[in-house]
Structure to design on (522 residues):
């Protein structure tokens, strides 16, 4: 297992968002985390990335207990998060956004040249500030910035949010390429069909608890609907 | 000709204001921290130079080599030991730096008495370049302006083109996203404060060479520095230099109209800029 999440409880202030969540991710695997709004998907990613410290349970990355290691040091270990809403740096140019992503100095296949190869649309706008990019361009920069740290584990939060279908299509084609380089990917996605089609295995969260997990291909529509909505079928 | 002279002398004074404002501008830009002790810390640096002059016979120019690194180190420690703990909580940084200002002022009075002091810059303090019969430019004011230009220009270039500069700008944009690219924002804030107090030390020593100071000279310097930052525009270091010069010129011209109106004229120009162009002369428009 590359990452083991064991019975984790996470809170925002007094609000508990995760209840004893356990997730395992094998090296090289692509994992989808699905669930309704507010089910705790983004919380799970924030907890793995170290933006949120769980109050109970533990995480192990390649056998190493993550304990209270802060987010910026987890990047050094090889965990990179592409946050919801992209959050690229608006006053930095596209190129500078990529460069700042390489600050941790992890070496690997991903270089700026490789990123421009992966996302040719970034090449002509390399000098443009982050504040004037379209949603699709921003998402490409955000993924590129995360890849520049050559992560072993790439966490993708709501890639498709607010993007046109054709842009989403193009982005997912790129994700396949990233997976082929051997990067382990965790995918949080509203679009269940796309998530299950991309992933090897999947976890469904319901109100902060794991309601279903298994191989993505083996999940039936009924199982997913039950796990997604809590078995209340009409 | 007297008016031209007022403008020239004002611009030269503006160099000193810009030196004071540089560190204030940087720290606000990077971590949104308003350091109310900035002026007092600059005065503290001037007193350190006094100590070195009294006990080691060091000229203020040479004392820069000691005082600037010392203040930079103190800035890093201050940020790590105190200010980093206040950043997430609204008023706390203001209160902490205000408290620090009071402590510095009183400690200086305790240690050095309330007597005014000065720093002897040597013969350069009285030498000047004669431009016309009515205008002459003092070497020291000129050097101050050059120092401000080099310092602010250097900081601006560093921010634009170095890896550290990119990290500082990224953190200024979005400190949570900065953590996600592996930036340790607390360490970075320490570095920013170190640079800030290093520049404050330069400002304090130049001030001490040009005029006298006492333990309570800081707050007035802080106000001028604030005005320079706001006139120039938040987030732009070239703007801060320009703001310092505009403020200096306003004061110079005001003094020419009526001795004693200088400071008032500076405040009026500051208010006018706030009214007409709230983002400052070179400031970016606030993001929507």
């Amino acid at each position: 297992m590359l990452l083991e999440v064991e019975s984790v409880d996470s809170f925002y202030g007094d609000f508990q968002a995760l209840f004893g969540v356990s997730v395992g991710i094998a090296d090289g695997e692509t994992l989808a985390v699905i669930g309704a709004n507010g089910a705790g998907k983004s919380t799970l990613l924030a907890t793995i990335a170290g933006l949120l410290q769980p109050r109970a349970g533990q995480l192990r990355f390649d056998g190493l207990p993550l304990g209270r290691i802060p987010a910026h040091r987890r990047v050094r270990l090889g965990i990179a998060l592409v946050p919801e809403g992209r959050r690229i740096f608006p006053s930095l140019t596209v190129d500078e956004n990529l460069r700042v992503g390489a600050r941790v100095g992890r070496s690997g296949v991903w270089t700026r040249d490789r990123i421009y190869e992966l996302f040719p649309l970034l090449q002509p706008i390399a000098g443009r500030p982050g504040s004037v990019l379209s949603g699709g361009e921003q998402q490409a920069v955000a993924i590129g910035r995360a890849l520049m740290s050559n992560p072993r584990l790439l966490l993708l939060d709501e890639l498709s949010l607010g993007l046109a279908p054709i842009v989403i299509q193009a982005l997912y084609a790129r994700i396949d390429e990233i997976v082929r380089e051997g990067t382990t990917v965790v995918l949080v996605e509203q679009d269940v069909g796309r998530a299950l089609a991309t992933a090897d295995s999947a976890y469904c969260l319901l109100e902060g608890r794991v309601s279903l997990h298994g191989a993505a291909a083996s999940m039936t529509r009924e199982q997913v609907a039950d796990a997604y909505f809590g078995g209340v079928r009409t | 000709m007297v008016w031209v002279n007022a403008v020239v002398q004002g611009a030269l004074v503006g160099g000193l204001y810009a030196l004071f404002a540089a560190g204030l501008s940087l720290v606000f830009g990077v971590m949104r921290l308003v350091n109310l002790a900035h002026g007092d810390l600059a005065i503290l640096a001037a007193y350190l130079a006094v100590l070195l002059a009294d006990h080691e016979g060091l000229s203020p120019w040479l004392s820069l080599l000691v005082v600037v690194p010392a203040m930079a180190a103190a800035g890093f420690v201050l940020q790590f030991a105190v200010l980093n703990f206040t950043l997430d909580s609204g008023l706390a940084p203001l209160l902490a730096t205000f408290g620090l200002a009071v402590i510095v002022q009183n400690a200086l009075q305790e240690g050095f008495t309330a007597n005014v002091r000065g720093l002897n810059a040597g013969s350069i303090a009285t030498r000047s370049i004669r431009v016309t019969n009515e205008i002459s430019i003092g070497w020291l004011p000129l050097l101050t302006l050059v120092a401000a230009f080099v310092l602010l220009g250097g900081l601006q270039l560093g921010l634009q083109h170095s890896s550290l500069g990119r990290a500082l700008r990224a953190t200024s944009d979005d400190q949570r996203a900065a953590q996600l690219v592996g930036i340790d924002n607390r360490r970075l804030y320490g570095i920013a404060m170190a640079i800030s107090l290093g520049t404050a030390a330069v400002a304090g020593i130049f001030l001490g060479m040009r005029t006298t100071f006492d333990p309570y000279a800081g707050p007035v310097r802080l106000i001028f520095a604030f005005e320079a930052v706001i006139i120039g525009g938040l987030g732009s270091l070239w703007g801060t230099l320009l703001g310092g010069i505009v403020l200096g010129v306003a004061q110079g011209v005001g003094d020419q109209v009526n001795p004693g109106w200088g400071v008032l004229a500076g405040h009026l120009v500051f208010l006018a800029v706030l009214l007409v162009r709230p983002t400052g002369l070179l400031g970016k428009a606030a993001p929507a």
User: Anything to note?
Assistant: Chain B touches chain A at residues 163, 166-167, 169-170, 172-174, 176-185, 287 (CB under 8 Å).
